[in-house]
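Reference record
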Amino acid sequence: MQGIYMKDIVVIGAGKIGGAIALMLAETGDYKVVVADRSQEQLDKIDRHSAISTAAVDIADRAGLVGVLKGKFAVLSAAPFHLTGFVAEAALEAGVHYLDLTEDVATTKKVEELAQGANTAFIPQCGLAPGFISIVANDLAKRFDSLDSVRMRVGALPQYPSNALNYNLTWSTDGLINEYIEPCEAIVEGKLVTVPAMEEREEFSLDGVTYEAFNTSGGLGTLAKTLSGRVRTMNYRTIRYPGHQAIIKALLNDLNLKNRRDVLKDLFENALPATMQDVVVVFVTVCGWREGRYMQETYANKVYAGVVAGKKMSAIQITTAAGITTVLDLLAEGKLPAKGFVCQEEIDLGDFLANRFGQVYSLEKIRMREAV
């Protein structure tokens, strides 16, 4: 690709998302990828490719991790949220660009602190939400003279729900539980506030399907800070099929599993089957004033599981991996700042969707695939 010459990349985490990122990058011929994980068993599951190698390293081993990162172009963290901060610290010491997928608010604040005065770029929250949804919301917001409300909704759902929760595991269990428990940021009547997770349930329909949505942590990313003082109402809610929220609240509150995360994780992973047949729903609505009129603009999209880089991937793998690989491409092409802290909302939606990875989100591309 124009502007990109062979670059060495480290992907931290050999799970489903890390593996998808590595394969998508390797298939381009523009990147050589080292996948690092402390589990040799996980590393052995990584797809074999001439441009992919592996390294067994514990993230907590600072010297070992820095040694793996030295001399590379960038590190992409697909590690659990509570380990991501260690990767950012090692990236700073090694002098490499840093990108991550975290939705954890505290981790992002730590990354922002580390980025102050750094000679490389620190770009957190490069996934789906936060990540792509922040880019979409900011693009819509820029079309208004003044803003009233920004409402961001995202869900990774099974195509064929068949249990009481109407849900299957599609991504990190730790990340899911964190979103369901930790406080959420929102802008209410112009003020940035904290609101509880799992509350403020609403229903809406899209393409004839009814969904519920409720507060979860982390989805606003840095956009809340960016638009603070410019918008009256701004919130992020996770999309599920109706009935999900009530059962989860009973587990968290009535059975007190919010204080026993290990038990909740064990229940989820042994009672909720994973699925590759999923759909990612993205729904963003912005209201405000343009040329004196009160107007609304909405972005709605569904991305399904499919074949990417020659391998069948779930929708959450595709959308999450495409988010961070697109940002990496844009960084490598010089379309993003190469130093300091970079917010998702600094990324141009047009550049994102025109990118070879970002095209998986393109409504036009999706319609073309459906027509075949």
Remarks:
- The chain has a mean pLDDT of 93.
- The longest helix spans residues 315-332.
- The first strand starts at residue 7 and ends at 12.
